[in-house]
Amino acid sequence: MRAIVRDQVQAVPDIHALRDRLERMQGRRMDAPVLPTHPAFTSLLPGGGLRSGSAYAIARSSSLLLALMARPSQDGAWCGVIGMPELGAEAAEKYGLDLDRLVFIPDPGPRWLAVTATITEVLPVVAVRPPQGSNAARGGAEATRLAARLRDRGTVLLV
User: Is the pTM of this model over 0.90?
Assistant: First the structure.
């Protein structure tokens, strides 16, 4: 019995060391707060919600996007939608988004990555659809700054 307890006590520092190492490698805290979302997504998302300071790549589905944004919006979070001119306010409202806390930027132009980075400074939930043919990885320094900004501000980015 003592050996089991000793092994468990010894494992605790190992777990903390592993967590610290993962946080340094990923550049984000594993215990960062999560924004709750629709209960249907709880078991699908780590931590049961949208982790602050993280980016999520989602299918090209307006329904899924709006469903993920609805609960944070209902809870008072400001949300932004960038580069989706076909997404309308009526659809957003049907999914439960608070239109008084929703910012639309239908066409951010060729500097979409810089526009997205700027919006993540002030809004806690931002959805963006990069222009066709663009590659955020080619953004290099700008994409790196955006990732750092997400972590610093605790913004959730849905791509």
Answer: no
